[in-house]
Amino acid sequence: MKRLILIPILLLLAQYGADAQQVLTLEDCRQMAVQGNKNLDQARQKVKMAEYDRKIAAANYFPEIKATGAYLYNNKNLVLIDDQTSDALNNMGTTVQGQFNAQMEQLMAAIKTNPSAAMEYMKSPMWQTVVGALSQTDVSAALNTVGSSISESFNLDIQNVYVGAVSLQQPVFVGGKIVASNRMAKYADELARVQYEGEYEDVLLTVDQAYWQIVSIANKKKLAEDYAALLDHLCKDAEASVAEGVATQSDLLSIKVKCNEAQMLLSKSVNGLALSKMLLCKQIGLPLDSEITLADETLDVIPMPELLGRKDMDSILADRTETRSLDLASKIYDQKVTIARADGLPTVALTANYLISNPSSFNGFKNEFGGSIHAGVLVSVPLFHGTEGIQKTKKAKAEAEMYRTKYQDACEMIGLQVEQLTRQQDEALERVNMTESSLESAEENLRVAMLGFEEGVVSASVTLQAQTAWMQAHSEYIDACVELQMNHANLLKAQGEYNLNN
């Protein structure tokens, strides 16, 4: 029963071991690097931020509408008259009654001086009615009440104040600042996308370099293994020749020294290959201890890339991220010039407001809500602020000119770079052909030397030289093939054609 359980487990472990060794193509490595690269993630976020800035700039075309509300508590009410006037109003009846009584006393005194004339008047019905009414009516109390009412009307209850407002402002003319800001945001959005493309290309190039470096080291590791095997075979033949008296002990010792050097070279290749794969794992987002095998490192012959033809320079400059970035940067600063100039121009805006308050300021400050609408035109004319506006304009012009100069310099450098890489491509191809021819000669020379050593007609030193030359020819051939691949990648990037499909 236990054996039946162990068999599936062993099969699963075997399957896991087979799956753990991942075989990755160059395209696989590129895609994995693009998906998990932190610099690309940051570049993508910058693109999103630029999109938001563009939408923010577009919002300036629309009116600004704001709503505000407030509550205010006052520990005192608002009094529109002073205390002296208030006291006068509150005692208005008493004052009037006193003045009336004083006038009556003066009248009575005048009547006494002319009794004959006054007696007839005092007997009249009108006089009797007035005197009777004044004697029976408290005029002072009534007038005091009226005065108190008037005084209270000047005492406003504003201890609890509620205010609300809705305002609208629509810019009509701001010196071209809104248009320039939107253009600048558009160019900044394009610049962020171009910079993302640049980061994208850098990631691909870095992965390509790491990939072909591994292929180079893997091939040199196989070469070191073959070289060590050749020396081991030669060492065994030398031991047999020494036993037969055909070779000397010195020859054997020389071969053993070369065997030790071959083992050291092999060990160095193994360690270098492991470190190079760890670096690639980091770039493509795999754990550093992942077991990976590259598709091209298992091939007997390193594949040759398709040679690139000469591309029109105008097309190259239009495709290169560096020139596109500098061109967009100069356009951004051109718009900054417009914005700086606009700060010195008048601005015109339409305004409208609706204000509501309690107590109502539109109805005698009664404790009720009341509102009103206001509309108009707002004109602002800058008069003087030193030379700030002039200096800002000059600075923006200088920055725009600086980026135009950088653009021209970049164009010249790109032209030189493309020409240099194109020539290097031809040189690398020629080197591949030459090293391939040298390799064929070295292999034939090694075959003859090994056969001669076995037959005792070729010395050990000559055989060692043939093996060293064979190894050197193989190493140079590997270097030439990898150099051609790297030159292909660099030339693609230089011509602005670098992407996942290349």
Structure notes:
The chain has 502 residues and is of the alpha+beta class. The chain folds into three domains: 320 residues, Outer membrane efflux proteins (OEP), CATH 1.20.1600.10; 58 residues; 78 residues, no CATH class. The chain is 70% helix and 11% strand. The protein has 14 helices and eight strands. Strands 2-5-7-8 form a four-stranded antiparallel β-sheet, with no helix packed on it. Strands 1-6 form a two-stranded parallel ribbon. Helix 2 packs across helix 9. The longest helix is centred in the middle third of the chain and has 68 residues. The protein starts with a helix and ends in an 8-residue tail after the last helix. The N terminus is likely disordered.
Short account of what is shown:
The protein is α+β, with helices and mostly antiparallel strands and 502 residues long.
CATH class membership of the largest domain = Mainly Alpha
Second rung of CATH, namely the architecture of the largest domain: Up-down Bundle
**End-to-end distance:** 56 Å
Structural class: alpha+beta
Shape: rod-shaped
> What is the CATH topology descriptor of the largest domain?
Outer membrane efflux proteins (OEP)
As for the number of domains, it is 3
The SSE order reads HEHHEEHHHHHEEHHEHHEEHH
The value of Rg in angstroms is: 51 Å
Question: What percentage of amino acids are in beta strands?
Answer: 5-15%
